[in-house]
Amino acid sequence: MITGQTRTLVILADPIAHVRTPQVLNPRLEAEGVDAVLVPLEVPPEALEAALRGLAGARNFAGAVITLPHKTAVPALCDALSDRAAAAQSVNVVRRRRDGSLYGDLLDGEGFVRGFEQTGVTLCGKRVFLAGAGGAASAIAFALAGRGVAALTIANRSAAKAGALIARLSARFPDVAFTAAADPAGHDIAINGTSLGLRPGDALPFDPDRLDPGTLVAEVIMQPATTALLRAATARGLTTHPGRHMLEGQLTELLRFLTHEEDEK
Ligand code: NDP
Hints:
This protein has helices at residues 21-31, 48-56, 83-88, 108-118, 135-146, 159-172, 228-235, 244-248, 251-259; strands at 7-13, 36-42, 61-66, 80-81, 93-96, 102-105, 127-131, 151-155, 177-180, 189-192, 216-219, 240-241. The chain is an alpha/beta fold. Helix 7 links the parallel strand 11 (216-219) and strand 12. It comes from Pseudodonghicola flavimaris.
């Protein structure tokens, strides 16, 4: 039951209707006996700073999950960032500290690779194609490089963003071969890290007909559960990995981050 002692968590997104985090996280909070509730808030980009600053003023505001389109705007609004959030310049979770300051971290990348590992896929040594260079894709790229993939090809609509991401990755992971290219041929794993597929009629993030036989096709999009990309991959006889694994892979860490005071890295 929600009482005056319940701590409030929010998820900030625009649009909000498609997010699945409240129906996944609230039952977990209840099952684990945590007196907190996660509430959806639809906040447009122009209201983001005021919304976050306003929330930080509330003493029982515990933290926020950040999603589309706010992840890359939130780092500048936090008082402190984890190393991985600073490196990717992207935040998907914010904790309010006791003094009202905001600490941002990025669990998406770790969630994505754990989601893979939970299904038995090994990433070390693989050649990976990643569409996107936004918040989710940047987090995934850093986590993949940290797992020792052999090569990572990045394709993004705004080429300059892909180039900047590759520059940051190369500085941190000199042993991984990073390339900017749009062709997904010649990879073991191909990932959609863009928001293409959320809306009916969206273009495909890359051409599935170019994929090698045996390529594993992965999504970040959770709703719809089967995107046009996953449908096209299945039609070609390829194995697919749906977006829900990325959230499932980070749930435990997300819960701990939002509801406990932790040492900050
Ligand atoms: P961002 O806004 O940070 O990035 C969006 C990305 O999509 C950019 O690479 C952008 O390219 C690309 N993009 C958007 N529209 C188009 C288009 N019309 N044509 C080509 N490329 C396009 O968003 P996030 O990274 O935060 O989120 C991306 C997706 O990941 C969302 O769908 C979100 O729901 C999902 N997600 C899923 C999670 C899970 O647990 N399963 C967790 C986190 C996110 P450009 O740079 O050129 O604008």
